[in-house]
Amino acid sequence: MKMFEPIEQRVKIPQKIVKHRPADQLMDGYIAILAGAQGMVEVNKRVRAERAVQVAFGRTSCAEQSVVQDTLDACNDQNFAEMHSAMGQIFRRQSQNYRHDYQREWQLLKVDMSGRPCGRKAALATNGYFAKQRNRRGRQEGYVIASWYEEIVVERIYEGTTQLNRALRPLVEAAESCLELDEAKRKRTILRVDSSGGSVEDINWALERGYRVHIKDYSGSRAAQLAKSVQVLFDDPAQPDRQFGWVREEVNAYVRPVHRIAVRCRKENGQWGIGVIVSNREPKDVLWLTGHYRQEEEKDEQILLAYVHFYDQRGGTIEIEIKEDEQGLSTTKRSKKRFAAQQILTQLEVLAHNTLIWMRQWLATHCPRLAHFGLKR
């Protein structure tokens, strides 16, 4: 299928060729990730020692692991720009998401960040938020995932203190370029984002671009103030300690009409935690997306429940994909000191993730049980 061809053609790493081309060494690293390597040091064991694995990928030999490491370290800023371009070309060739029927169904993109710990001496490694790891240094990974297809559209590395409010626009713009989203396609695309990307400025930027949004408001104090305008609260039948209702305060902060739903949950200390969901989705669309029936459109409680549950579903897509990559592709086990090298390595991991997603689709027609398999070996 010549999947690796765009990388061979576009990525020109300034390195002397002795036995293996730089592109061949990148392929050896990519094969090692698919073969279960938790670090590039395992290239020798996972690929070089396995003649059949080399032949299966069209290689007649394999570079030594230190040479693969040197190739990654030789990458510069120009190379990871070339790599991003090549990855976009591969995605457009193979992706289901790129061929999405926008007239028939909404496109759904989920944007999020995840911490990636690394050594103190690594470039852009700073103290930041890393789940269950206090005082840890590392970088942040920004993702855009196509929820319906489980494909990673875009992934970028940022310094450890970066939050989604700084990365949202570059990530969406990169996804927009990769998917070639024109104005008509953006109007049929939903961005589902958590509160870290829910500032008024970011929401207005997305609305001006024509996107449909389903985002949690960034400001906790504003959410508490807006919740005071709720006239009727409904109980969530699935979570007894959660209630929701329409925000009745007049909307004047956004450039397009939006619906706002206040949600409050009882915390362990007995106080209420309050958030506000901002959405410009129409009730009939949200009901359809959450599997409710159209005849429930006139029932306020069912409409509100659909808006809230559609936001809840964000945890069932990108978080699962990130966790599958951590468990199945050992993404948290690999890091490079140089930033350009880390960017290239990350793109190889993205390609490995998408390859497994595409491969599952190709093979499921011959072996249907594979359709339910995750990425973990």
Could you please describe the fold and organization of this structure?
- It is a single chain.
- With 377 residues, this protein is of the alpha+beta class.
- It folds into two domains: 5-86 and 336-372, no CATH class; 106-318, no CATH class.
- Helices cover 40% and strands 17% of the residues.
- It contains 14 helices and ten strands.
- Strands 1, 2, 3, 4, 5, 6, 7, 8, 9 and 10 form a ten-stranded mixed sheet that branches.
- A hairpin with a 5-residue loop joins β9 (259-266) and β10.
- The longest helix is centred in the last third of the chain and has 26 residues, at 339-364.
- The radius of gyration is 23 Å and the shape is elongated.
- The chain starts with a helix and ends in a 13-residue tail after the last helix.
Describe what is shown at a glance:
With 377 residues, the chain is of the alpha+beta class. It folds into two domains: 5-86 and 336-372, no CATH class; 106-318, no CATH class. The protein has helices at residues 5-10, 22-34, 43-48, 51-56, 65-73, 77-94, 164-179, 183-186, 200-208, 220-227, 283-289, 300-312, 318-328, 339-364; strands at residues 107-117, 126-127, 137-146, 151-159, 189-193, 212-216, 234-235, 242-246, 259-266, 272-279.
